[in-house]
Amino acid sequence: MMLFARKPLSASSRPAVLALLLLPALAACDSTERQAARQREAERVAAANQAFDRDQQLWREQRKSELLKPDGWASLIGLHPIEPGSHYLGSDPDNGIRLSAGPAHFGLLSLANGRLRFIPERGAPLTFNDQPIKGAVTLLADDYPAGPTRIGFDEGQGGLTVIKRGERYFLRVRHSQAPTLTGFKGIDYWPAQQDWKLSAKFVAHPAGKTLEIANIIGTIEPTPNPGAIEFQRDGRSYRIEALDQGGEQLLLVFADRTSGHTSYSAGRFLEVARPNLQGGVVVDFNKAYNPPCAFTAYATCPLPPQENRLDLEIAAGEKTYKPAAPAHAS
Prior knowledge:
Blueprint: H1 14-67, E1 76-82, E2 85-90, E3 97-98, E4 107-112, E5 115-120, E6 127-128, E7 131-132, E8 137-139, E9 151-153, E10 158-165, E11 168-175, H2 179-182, E12 197-204, E13 210-214, E14 220-224, E15 227-233, E16 236-243, E17 249-254, E18 268-273, E19 280-284
Parallel strand pairs: 2-3
Antiparallel strand pairs: 1-11, 2-4, 4-5, 5-8, 6-7, 6-9, 9-10, 10-11, 12-15, 12-19, 13-14, 15-16, 16-17, 17-18
C-alpha cells in the first residue's frame, strides 16, 4: 500500500481557507444582529403603540369629565332670549321668563341700553357669584373679559348666566340634576387609529382676517381666522380654515361625509396646537368631538363654514350621540 503525504498549504491559500472556516460563525453573528435589530424595532413599535393608546384613553377620560361637570355642557336646562324691558323670572307660570327649575319667583330682570340689572325677590334663596345676594345687581354677559356673573339657586345646584350672541342676550340656565347629565349614556367612538393622526401644514392668512361663522340659533359672528390647515389623505389634499378663540389651541369646525350619518349632523370640532416655527402642525382626527348641541338643546354652537365641508369620510373620533330614551309612566 502506498502512502501519500499531505501537501502543505501555501501561504497564499491560507486566508481563503480561514474565511471558509469562519463563514458559519460570521453568518450566525449576522443573523443574531438582524434578530436583535428586529427585536429593537418591534419593541420601539410596541412602545409607540402603547403611548398612542394611553394618550387616546386619557383624552377620552378628560373629555367625558369636562362634559359631565356639574356646570358642564350636559347640565344645561334652559336658554331664554332677553328682550329689552323688564321681565319677572322664575318657575311659576306667571313669570315673563319661565324657568324649568328653582324658586317660583327669582325677581325682576331688566335690559336697557345693553345693561342688565337684576332685582331679587324678597326672601328668594339666591346667591350672586357664590355670595348671598343682598340687593339689586348688574349682570355681566360672557363677552366680559372676566367672564359672566352668576346667580345661584337650589343651594348651588343651579345657576343663571347671561350670554351674548351677536347683539342679542340670552339667559342660560344650568342644573346639576339636569336630565341630560343624570341620564348621560356615554360617548361612542370609532376605534382609534394612528393613520388618522396626520402631519399637516399651517398656511397663515394676513393679520386680522376673520371668517363669518353662523351658529345654530341663526346669528353670525366674525371670528378670527389666522390661517388654514392643509393635509393629505389617500393621495388627495384637503384644507380646513382654523379659528382663533384666544386659547392655546386653534379650533377646527368641520363637516365631512359621515356628518348626518354616523357622526353628528351639524359637524364636529377638533382642537390643534398652534403651528411650530416651520408651520408644522399635527391633526389627530381621533380626537374630533361633538359640539355641545349634540348633547343639549340649549347650546349655541358654531356651524362649519362652507370652506370646512370636506369631501372625505373621516371615520375617526366621536360618533353621533344617542341619548337614553325618556322614561314613560307605566
